[in-house]
Amino acid sequence: MRPVRLAVSLGDPAGVGPELLAALAGRDAGLPDNIYLTVFGDRGALERGCVAAGVDPTLIRELPADGLSEPTPGKLDLVQVGDALGPVKLGAVDADCGAASFEWFSAAVEAVVARSADAVVTGPICKQSWAEAGVQYAGHTGWLAQRFGLPTVMMLAGPRLRVVPLTVHVPLARVPQLLTRELVLEQLRILQRALIEDFGVKRPRIALAGLNPHAGEGGGIGREELEVLIPAAQTLRAEGIDISDPLPADGLFPAAIDGGYDAVACPTHDQALIPFKLLQMHSGVNLTLGLPIVRTSPA
């Protein structure tokens, strides 16, 4: 297999990202021999991560951003992005840290766009620090959607379960207004394409969860199923997509875990993420579907 270079953004320098990346480089992480990491961030922050993780900082090899050389086994390749960052207060919300982590993230993405790297993995950020720095995006996904001018879908995938929240980081009270037929169709078409093209599922089977308890009980506990979800599912089935009518969210996950579905789409964030993280907190991966590049992060 050819070498694969992953561009990894360091994450917030006041957070756990530098320590995690240093630990990954300093131990047998179980990565395939052809996978190499190149960190986009700051040498000082990564060195502090090495100290915290008990890893030799001399493993760091600094590379120029405009000419990434061949990866070196046993080294932690680093691209210094921007000016050197001074000491930071760990665990604190800080505008300078937010600005730095945003700059590192965007540089890692651009390396993949330029084909200097094959995919991007994003380290953990502090959204409050992004806001303090004046970054106009609530997180990675919003910036990626704007950068590429494409609708995106958040998927969490693991060995036993794949889930998609149709609405993400919004107040629960806004979900009924945001959950339009157009949104559901857009998100599920992207999901269908990703299951085929990215996961190699020849004929995906998608479960659609209802918004209301018991999937609305035919309109007795809310009408979103009747007015939005069922019509959207009918349209998608007419296009050849194998998707269920809305099912009660409290009962569909055992069937999905047992292999009855290839993915579960849920109207709300927590409907999808609570069962996923209960089962796969440490083995799950967050993917941004719909992009021309591969972007992942730990779930």
- Structure classification: alpha/beta
Poorly predicted runs of 5 or more residues? none
Largest sheet descriptor: 12 strands, mixed
How far is it from the N-terminal to the C-terminal residue, by CA? Answer: 27 Å
Strand content: 15-25%
- Number of helical runs? 10
The coarse overall form would be elongated
Overall pLDDT level: 93
What radius of gyration results from the CA coordinates? Answer: 21 Å
Order of helices and strands: EHEHEEHEHHEEHHEHEHEHEE
Helix content: 25-40%
Strand order of the largest sheet: 3-4-2-1-5-12-11-6-7-10-8-9
Report the strand count.
12
Describe, in plain words, how this protein is organized in 3D.
By secondary structure, this protein is α/β, with parallel strands linked by helices. The chain contains ten helices and twelve strands. Strands 3-4-2-1-5-12-11-6-7-10-8-9 form a twelve-stranded mixed beta sheet, sandwiched between helices. The chain starts with a strand and ends with a strand. The model has no long low-confidence stretch (mean pLDDT about 95).
